[in-house]
Amino acid sequence: MSGKKNIKNRLSKLIDWCTANKNYVLVLLCLLDHAFLFLWFLLVPHIVINSILNLVSVFIYSEILLLKKYDSPAAVSVIYWEILAYAFITEIILGSALGFHLYIIVLLEVAVVFYLTSFDYKTHLLFELFGIFILVILYPIQKFTAVFFSLQRKMIEPYTDFLYNFNMIVVVFAIVIVAFIFGQEIRKTNRELDYRATHDQLTDMYNRTHMYTCIAERSDSDNLIMLMSDIDDFKKKNDTYGHLAGDYILKQVARMIMERTDKKCVPIRWGGEEFMFILFN
Q1: ∠ CA 21-24-186, rounded to 5°
Q2: Does residue 113 carry a pLDDT above 60?
Q3: Burial degree of 227 (CB within 10 A; 0-12, 13-18, 19+)
Q4: What residues does 206 pair with on adjacent strands?
Q5: Residues 264 and 280: beta-carbon distance below 8 Å
Q6: Cβ 220 vs Cβ 226: under 8 Å
Q7: CA 278, CA 166: separation in Å to the nearest integer?
Q8: Phi, psi of 225 (to 5 degrees)
């Protein structure tokens, strides 16, 4: 039982880490993808230019990781242009049958433009429109350039299915990760909003909103007792020693109250130095 709990805790920590470092995860995935393609293209004759392209990409992502700039808007812009340029050039050289255009359709339009940038709406729209423009012109251009790269396309033809399936797996895997991280952030944000809506900001005690909800959830047959209390001479202390001292007193009193109440008692900060206690039978 403890072993399953440890695995669950480690998995939860890993998920939280990936969510908090989503840009780092994206850069690392891109680096691994290009490192694999660099080594793979080295094994195919007459496809040296694609090995060079992947080597350049490996260098770009390595620099971003080494400089720890993966969270900056500039780094996200570099990722955008790198994916766009790499997919565009590779499609021109090797054709569309290998599926490198999928990187533009999915990774740019969904992962980078809508999720992983901190840019404003106009920049989002500009990036998206430019990506769509590249997709529109890509097919006729790669058809036109087929005669110039006929040797490369002939050499890569036996590996068409492998590369297409590989690119499809990479794209689907990236989308699953992005969707999962996005869902985690939504759930985290909802939890934070729910906490702020039901807790007092200063003392972290429940507030009036939680009190109303707590009472509304009880049936008429439930017995409950409501008590009110306050801090004696709080205004005098607040005026004498200042509001910071008053806040300190409120937080300390709230902490002691929460430490000394059980599940049958719901302590609530009513307002100012006043506290309410709801006791259920």
Answers
A1: 35
A2: no
A3: exposed
A4: 199, 268
A5: yes
A6: no
A7: 60
A8: -125, 135
